[in-house]
Amino acid sequence: MDPLLIVLIVVVVLAVAGGIWFYAGRNRGGQVPPEVSAHKPTSADDVLLTPPQEEATEPQVAPGGPPPEAAAAPQPAEQAAPATLERPESIPGRMQRLRSRLAGAGGFGRAILSVLSRGDLTEADWEEIEDTLLTSDLGIEVTTSLMEELRTQAKVLDTSDPAAIRAVLRAELLALVDPSMDRSLNLAKPTPAAGWNDTDGEPAAAVLMVGVNGTGKTTTCGKLARVLVAEDKSVVMGAADTFRAAAAEQLTTWGERVGVEVVRSEREGADPASVAYDAARAAARQGVDVVVVDTAGRLQNKAGLMDELGKIKRVMEKVAPVGEVLLVLDATTGQNGMRQAQVFSEAVGITGIVLTKLDGTAKGGIVVTVQKELGVPVKLVGLGEGADDLAPFDPEGFVDALVE
Description:
The protein has 2 domains: about 90-175, SRP54, nucleotide-binding domain (Four Helix Bundle (Hemerythrin (Met), subunit A)); about 200-395, Rossmann fold, CATH 3.40.50. With about 400 residues, it is an alpha/beta fold. It has an 8-stranded mixed sheet with strand order 3-2-4-1-5-6-7-8, sandwiched between helices. It is elongated and about 160 Å long. The longest helix is centred in the N-terminal third of the chain and has 26 residues, at about 5-30. It has helices at about 5-30, 35, 45-50, 70, 90-105, 110-115, 125-135, 140-155, 160-175, 215-230, 245-260, 270-285, 305-315, 335-350, 365-375, 395-404, and strands at about 205-210, 235-240, 260-265, 290-295, 325-330, 350-355, 380, 390.
């Protein structure tokens, strides 16, 4: 064989062997050929089989943006905004709004005024006036007294003068409502009960709410808390109506709206006196101004239930005397409400009346009757279902609304 051909064959063999060795060495070093690394999946199977790519270790920063350190810093989680507590309506605003609502509803005073203004009243006219007074729940005694005074004034006045008649009627009704009665709530800090430990705090003024079923007592407790908060007083409420689970839930909802704590029992049917006591102690420990305790509605003819109410009051007074016992009455119940007031007064010593649904209807006469019979003032009135539809009773505003 030609030596030159042999040399050429050897060079070719060596070149091929060298190439094979070179590529084999690259694969042993973990290097991936460019054709493989550049492959992009083109089918669904390829996508599933392709391992996820590692994320870039260096943050991408837009031109003019923050430095890499700031861009890569984790952002704090956004915190939920705290619930906004409601600010109850001011007392002057409540009284003005309730007065206008009462005037718009009309009342027995206006019915009497329309008869008195006719002039030259006949006996039939006087009977109409008397019927109006009786159906207004003024009672026989009050009606008789008022009729005598109106007849006397009609003889000396020109009954054809509406202004003169209105002035007489206003004066007589105002005297019956008695603006001289103290209608303020007794919210002074009480003297601690005998044996009370000073380390347990200063007792709060205590308000006990009582009444029969269906008068809106629990709702009135919540509304009273709003009245007190509007006067910048701190409040704790006690849910001593343990026989109705919804009562505690309802009171808690009222408290949450204005930031008032509610002391309650998680066990339905728990001893209501115990819950009332715990509420009084919690109020003392926290140094709040007033503790308002709701009680279960009870029938005035059930002696056992009334005795239990007395027990609640006695247990609360182991902390401090109860300054206010407010009876919640539905103004539309009329003379039945009067009987309720008498029984509750005997059981726990009523100090004031809260009249609900006093919308200027004929039943408004209960204001006069309950005060005359018990010597207890109407202190608060409600004219609607709104959260702030409760206000201190204004005798002159009430009478003016009846005769305007």
